[in-house]
């Protein structure tokens, strides 16, 4: 009986926090179901006649935004960044975690120092570099070269993440592999990388989510014909069949696209949350 009260308090607090975090999604849904004139009426909380056809207009026509074309471009960039950064960061992290070489700690400190730089500081020099190299003038599908170039070296935060994971594995694994005649590359791909399944899943979730919701980078590097869904949502969403002489924000359709934009991330997390929690729990533990 003594433990019932604390548990009820904890559950009440969790329910309250869940409602608090879910309320923006609920507000986005009811806004997507309103008519434009209902947005000016503050007393209308839930629309008397929900406009469910807003979702059909977004999915079945290109009058609001080219939804599926933009989603395709978004997913292509997500796959490129996720695959390249995950593999390259794992290889660099494996080297820092398992190899013994002079200057290794100094190089690792430089990698960690790059984490201190805000990403916005690198946008201008990267844009100038890609422009001078002619990587911004290609049409689809070669317009994704900037993401390939920036993903191949890996990202510092994930290099650190993999370094902590691989450093915690027992040394007997690599000794047994070397005795069996495996080189370092084969040891990495056949022994260490399969053991890093939770870490790989966690990295992929973060990379996919960050790239999927990125707004500034596609806005700089892509044209309107190959823009991502995040950019289309913010800049190119329109009222279907209506042309205004002055820009009027199409809020119901922006909320509709926002709901459809958010669903893949929610589905991804629910399918991979078990591996995500395992990766966070095991990284950095010594074997």
Features:
287 residues; mainly alpha; MetI-like fold; globular
Give the structure's gist in a few sentences.
This protein has 287 residues and is mainly alpha-helical. The chain is 68% helix and 0% strand.
Please provide a written account of the structure.
This protein is an all-alpha fold. The chain has one domain: MetI-like fold (Orthogonal Bundle). The protein has 13 helices and no strands. The chain has helices at residues 4-32, 53-60, 67-98, 104-114, 119-133, 145-151, 156-167, 172-179, 184-195, 197-212, 216-221, 229-236, 251-282. Helix 4 crosses helix 7 (156-167). The two termini are 40 Å apart. The model has no long low-confidence stretch (mean pLDDT 82).
Helices and strands in order:
Layout: H1 4-32, H2 53-60, H3 67-98, H4 104-114, H5 119-133, H6 145-151, H7 156-167, H8 172-179, H9 184-195, H10 197-212, H11 216-221, H12 229-236, H13 251-282
Helix pairs in contact: 1-13, 3-7, 3-10, 4-7, 8-9, 10-13, 12-13
């Amino acid at each position: 009986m003594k433990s019932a009260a604390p548990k009820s308090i904890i559950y009440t607090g969790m329910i309250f926090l869940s409602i608090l975090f879910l309320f923006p999604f609920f507000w986005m849904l009811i806004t997507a179901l309103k008519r434009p004139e209902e947005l000016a009426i503050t007393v209308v909380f839930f629309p008397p006649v929900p406009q469910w056809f807003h979702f059909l207009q977004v999915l079945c026509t290109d009058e609001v935004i080219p939804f599926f074309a933009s989603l395709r471009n978004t997913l292509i960039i997500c796959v490129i960044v996720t695959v390249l950064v995950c593999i390259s960061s794992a290889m660099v992290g494996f080297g820092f975690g398992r190899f013994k070489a002079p200057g290794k700690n100094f190089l690792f400190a430089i990698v960690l120092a790059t984490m201190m730089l805000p990403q916005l500081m690198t946008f201008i020099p990267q844009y100038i570099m890609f422009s001078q190299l002619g990587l911004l003038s290609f049409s689809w599908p070669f317009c994704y070269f900037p993401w390939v170039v920036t993903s191949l070296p890996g990202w510092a935060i994930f290099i650190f993440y993999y370094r902590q994971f691989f450093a915690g594995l027992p040394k007997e694994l690599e000794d047994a592999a070397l005795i069996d005649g495996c080189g370092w590359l084969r040891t990495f791909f056949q022994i260490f990388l399969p053991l890093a399944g939770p870490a790989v899943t966690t990295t992929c979730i973060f990379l996919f989510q960050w790239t999927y919701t990125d707004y500034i980078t596609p806005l700089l590097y892509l044209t309107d014909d190959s823009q991502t869904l995040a950019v289309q949502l913010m800049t190119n969403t329109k009222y279907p069949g209506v042309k205004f002489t002055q820009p009027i924000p199409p809020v119901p359709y922006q909320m509709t696209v926002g709901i459809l934009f958010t669903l893949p991330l929610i589905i991804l997390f629910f399918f991979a949350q078990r591996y995500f929690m395992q990766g966070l729990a095991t990284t950095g533990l010594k074997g």
